[in-house]
Known about the structure:
By secondary structure, the protein is α/β, with parallel strands linked by helices. The chain has one domain: NADP-dependent oxidoreductase domain (TIM Barrel). Helices cover about 40% and strands about 15% of the residues.
Amino acid sequence: xxxxxxxxxxxxxxxxxxxxxxxxxxxxxxxxxxxxxxxxxxxxxxxxxxxxxxxxxxxxxxxxxxxxxxxxxxxxxxxxxxxxxxxxxxxxxxxxxxxxxxxxxxxxxxxxxxxxxxxxxxxxxxxxxxxxxxxxxxxxxxxxxxxxxxxxxxxxxxxxxxxxxxxxxxxxxxxxxxxxxxxxxxxxxxxxxxxxxxxxxxxxxxxxxxxxxxxxxxxxxxxxxxxxxxxxxxxxxxxxxxxxxxxxxxxxxxxxxxxxxxxxxxxxxxxxxxxxxxxxxxxxxxxxxxxxxxxxxxxxxxxxxxxxxxxxxxxxxxxxxxxxxxxxxxxxxxxxxxxxxxxxx
Length: 345
């Protein structure tokens, strides 16, 4: 397992990160513990969670995933072997601070709650789960909407959040700061203000990246590479869709598609793309899921790829992607499919 620097810090993290969001909904506590045991013994030292998990989110499972990680820390005593990432949830859900949006007090309240559930005294990487403004990632828009945000409201909020992150770093409750589901403009505002004010620097951005969604290849890739704000790629298998298990509208029991009530990305543009990637993997004698994760690992802006699994068999396949080499012919074939299906949603 290769190790990468976390932004401009001295922290080294595994190039594959263990995602945890199914624990407490699709996975039990004992299954979560089993996954953490296996991941650690196979070179993964980086775990990612969030106060909002498990998913799909609801009031009954809020914070459950962090609690499962916390009981594992208590049972094993291996907290110091793990680089732990968590996130503060944004507004809109009444069971999370009454639905209030992200601001300084909500960040502090969220950190305190996460520390209790995780049974630890610090979070190594603390991330803003999504921006406090409209965003293409959630709008489903094919173009920029200049009316989704007011600059004079966004910038003071960023400053307030950064101030609080600075306080929490000084207190030792968080060590480093990152973003999630963020745009290039938003990331640059955080970078600019942190440099001007001597506040914590953004070290990572956790955004979606997979064969079906490669927005990051454009302006964010350049920003991440030159500014050392590495990508933590979530959903490298497009929520499992790239495995082919949802083709034809099938919803296997127990899968995320079945639990969430939809197959996610199942449409007339998605299915031909997925079938093409599956055929490509078969042509080269590869597992399509390992090929998808290995492709993410080839990117120069990548810090770590976040994998998630509901079974141990899935977890083993996904972790083994670190040993999957994609030669030039495979990468060229992937690019040809991408050029034919550049956006499937």
